């Protein structure tokens, strides 16, 4: 039996991480917060800090880099980090729809250009673009 130095509860040895004086539950609460998980994920996937993410969002005026939406949409509460899947280069922050859209178009400027041409050539029912970016 061992007493956790964080919560003060006497617990079985297996409730402690090796060479730690506080229990696994207290360790989780202290070191595995959602914000720390986010920081770890940003660093591992995009070599980016939370401050860099926040600065990028500020430079985009809190909007999607493509459609200028102010809400990220989708299931997340944050804009997606758009990046080149080959090089890892971070291009910007996108709303869920734009991120999925360019993903479905395989991040290909050629396919995107073809899609634009298709829409422009086949948009006979509209006298002007529906929205101004």
Q: What can you see in these coordinates?
A:
This protein is mostly helical. Helix content is 40%, strand content 10%. It has helices at 24-31, 34-46, 50-59, 96-104, 109-121, and strands spanning 2-3, 10-11, 80-83, 90-94. It has a two-stranded antiparallel ribbon. A two-stranded antiparallel sheet has the order 3-4. The longest helix has 13 residues, at 34-46. The radius of gyration is 23 Å and the shape is elongated. The mean pLDDT is 90.
Mean pLDDT: 90
CATH superfamily of the domain at 49-121: His-Me finger endonucleases
Level of helix content?
A: 25-40%
CATH class (first level) name of the domain at 49-121: Alpha Beta
Side by side, the strands of the main sheet go 1-2
List segments where confidence is low: pLDDT < 50 over at least 5 consecutive residues. none
Characterize this entry briefly.
The chain is mostly helical.
Question: How does the SSE layout of this entry go?
Answer:
Layout: E1 2-3, E2 10-11, H1 24-31, H2 34-46, H3 50-59, E3 80-83, E4 90-94, H4 96-104, H5 109-121
Antiparallel strand pairs: 1-2, 3-4
């Amino acid at each position: 039996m061992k007493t956790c130095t964080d919560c003060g509860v006497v617990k079985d040895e297996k409730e402690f991480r090796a060479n730690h004086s506080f229990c696994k539950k207290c360790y989780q609460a202290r070191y595995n917060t959602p914000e720390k998980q986010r920081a770890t994920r940003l660093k591992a996937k995009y070599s980016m800090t939370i401050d860099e993410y926040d600065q990028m969002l500020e430079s985009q005026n809190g909007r999607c880099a493509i459609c200028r939406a102010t809400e990220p949409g989708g299931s997340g509460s944050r804009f997606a980090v758009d990046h080149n899947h080959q090089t890892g280069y971070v291009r910007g922050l996108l709303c869920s729809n734009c991120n999925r859209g360019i993903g479905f178009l395989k991040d290909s400027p050629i396919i995107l250009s073809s899609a634009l041409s298709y829409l422009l050539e086949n948009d006979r029912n509209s006298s002007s673009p529906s929205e101004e970016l």
